[in-house]
């Protein structure tokens, strides 16, 4: 059974930090690129950050560049999102996504999300 389980969401004051984790099971973690996608209240999904399967390349949406850092530990089947200098506009449910192309088809797996609230 494929599982992606996010954790680490919390209520934090502006300027604070959080580290989100996503532990995966049920598929070959090292074959999948990993991403974080968020959904703010009343808004659509927004891609936040991605890292390739080898952990060599990472990318970020402009609004979080320099504040967030994605990383992965292939030995632990876990991807992280370190979030610093948090702003109220970072408030959202953060989802973990795994993606690979298998036999020419794109395969996506999703977690259920973890809520980050940035407020004083």
Structural topology:
Layout: E1 3-7, E2 11-12, E3 18-25, E4 33-39, E5 45-51, E6 58-60, E7 68-73, E8 78-83, E9 92-102, E10 105-110, E11 114-118
Parallel strand pairs: 2-11
Antiparallel strand pairs: 1-3, 3-8, 4-5, 4-9, 5-6, 7-8, 9-10, 9-11
Please provide a written account of the structure.
This protein is mainly β and 120 residues long. The chain has no helices and 11 strands. The chain has strands spanning 3-7, 11-12, 18-25, 33-39, 45-51, 58-60, 68-73, 78-83, 92-102, 105-110, 114-118. The radius of gyration is 14 Å and the shape is globular.
How far apart the termini lie comes to 40 Å
Radius of gyration, in angstroms, nearest whole number: 14 Å
The total of beta strands comes to 11
Number of helices: 0
Portion of residues within helices: under 10%
Concise structural overview:
The chain has 120 residues and is mainly β. It is 0% helix and 55% strand.
Q: Descriptors for this entry?
A:
7-stranded mixed sheet; mainly beta; 120 residues
